[in-house]
Amino acid sequence: MLGRLLDRTPLPDLVFTHISNAIRAGEYAPGDALQPRQVALDLRVSMAPVREALIRLRDVGLVDVSPARYTKVADFSTPEARATVGYAGLLAGLALRGALPGDSRAARRALTSATKHFLRADSPAARADAASRFLTAVTDLIDHPRQAVHLAEVALAAHCVLRSGTKDTDPAIKTELDHAVASLTTTLRESAASDVEQAVCTLFSVLGRA
């Protein structure tokens, strides 16, 4: 844990990142039990930062916690969890509405580049990766730190939801998704920020049903 001492990252943040990365990568499946004491031993930290990290993970939607009973990875297939994807699109759209007015050519190029990953997203993992790339590009444009952190956390939950989706996408949904990606690509090139906001919301609404 020398790196921890050198970068002075708060311990709860380190624990949060450790567990969330494992869930994001699929090392823990929905419903898998987490052992807080084992996490503390593995990271050589006390229980206090582990508990704080678990509360944050619960609030983000990655784990379910019942004090003195269990801590487990959340079920990402519930309607409430699926709604996280649409919420991520709503936040991203609002952020872009504020970030794109004026000379936004560089930002639009970066967003267009990120959008291209959706064209090859033919699996749950690929859709999750494409969404993460796009939402990261949006987060990079946000000036307000708390807003950026909130979007990053919602993006993390959306990634887990999309990654746990079904392998066989309804052909009608796939067609709708292709149209949404094409519309966003066109809108990013030539339309007002409000139109970009709507196109992003539409894309993530479709993703939430894929």
Any key phrases for this structure?
mainly alpha; Arc Repressor Mutant, subunit A; Four Helix Bundle (Hemerythrin (Met), subunit A); two-stranded antiparallel sheet; 2 domains; 210 residues; globular; 2 strands
Summarize the structure.
The protein has helices spanning 2-7, 11-24, 36-43, 47-60, 79-99, 105-115, 124-139, 145-163, 171-190, 193-207; strands at residues 63-66, 70-73.
Secondary-structure map:
Elements lengths: L1 H6 L3 H14 L11 H8 L3 H14 L2 E4 L3 E4 L5 H21 L5 H11 L8 H16 L5 H19 L7 H20 L2 H15 L3
Structure overview:
With 210 residues, the protein is mainly α. The chain has two domains: 2-73, Arc Repressor Mutant, subunit A (Orthogonal Bundle), CATH 1.10.10; 79-207, Four Helix Bundle (Hemerythrin (Met), subunit A), CATH 1.20.120. It contains ten helices and two strands. The chain has helices at 2-7, 11-24, 36-43, 47-60, 79-99, 105-115, 124-139, 145-163, 171-190, 193-207, and strands at 63-66, 70-73. A two-stranded antiparallel sheet has the order 1-2. A hairpin with a 3-residue loop joins β1 and β2. α6 packs antiparallel against α9 (171-190). The longest helix is centred in the middle third of the chain and has 21 residues, at 79-99. The model has no long low-confidence stretch (mean pLDDT 92).
